[in-house]
């Protein structure tokens, strides 16, 4: 059944949180003898909801991004052609990029909530990915222009990107291409 507020099904995670919250309220009421039994005690959630459809960009849309002259093009193409997550790309340093062997080693990520580096999302997230030729040339050019920073993608001061800076990058790309997408959709394009 659809959530009336959003006109789409409520996620399993949200339903679980609602049930736990209600269960805690009714358990408290039972302990304090305000009610005689907990009505949530026998509630079972549906096993699963239909999986969300993952969208990916078309080759034509990727071509639109490639043709732009914008500082957000390089991170977008790294996500498209190498499958990095935004946090992994934020933490990516030039030491992790081997242009000679055309590989990127992903071994860390940035946690935007805690504002610190962390290990990748999963153990299998630590990986080495190939760099396609068309991206290799762009990375080589970017490397020459960023000798004062360790980060592959950085702000104007050469420091690690913030969530706000990523949002500004995305706004610039979507405005110039006319394509509506999010950063993670670029990763789906890779997969």
Q: Care to describe what's here?
A:
The protein has 191 residues and is mostly helical. It has seven helices and seven strands. The strands form three sheets. A three-stranded antiparallel sheet has the order 3-4-7, with no helix packed on it. Strands 1-2 form a two-stranded antiparallel sheet. A two-stranded antiparallel ribbon has the order 5-6. A hairpin with a 4-residue loop joins strand 3 and strand 4. Helix 3 runs parallel beside helix 7.
Order of helices and strands: EEHHHHEEEEEHHH
| First and last CA, distance | 30 Å
Rg calc: 22 Å
Number of helices: 7
Largest sheet: 3 strands, antiparallel
Question: What is the typical, i.e. mean, pLDDT?
Answer: 90
Q: What is the molecular shape?
A: elongated
Low-confidence regions: none
Q: Percent range for helical residues?
A: 40-55%
Q: Record the strand order, biggest sheet.
A: 3-4-7
Strand content: 5-15%
What is the secondary structure topology, with strand pairs?
Layout: E1 2-3, E2 8-9, H1 12-31, H2 59-67, H3 73-82, H4 86-91, E3 97-98, E4 103-106, E5 109-111, E6 116-118, E7 127-130, H5 133-145, H6 163-177, H7 183-190
Helix pairs in contact: 3-5, 3-7
Characteristics of this structure?
elongated; 3-stranded antiparallel beta sheet; 7 helices; 191 residues; mainly alpha; 7 strands; 42% helix
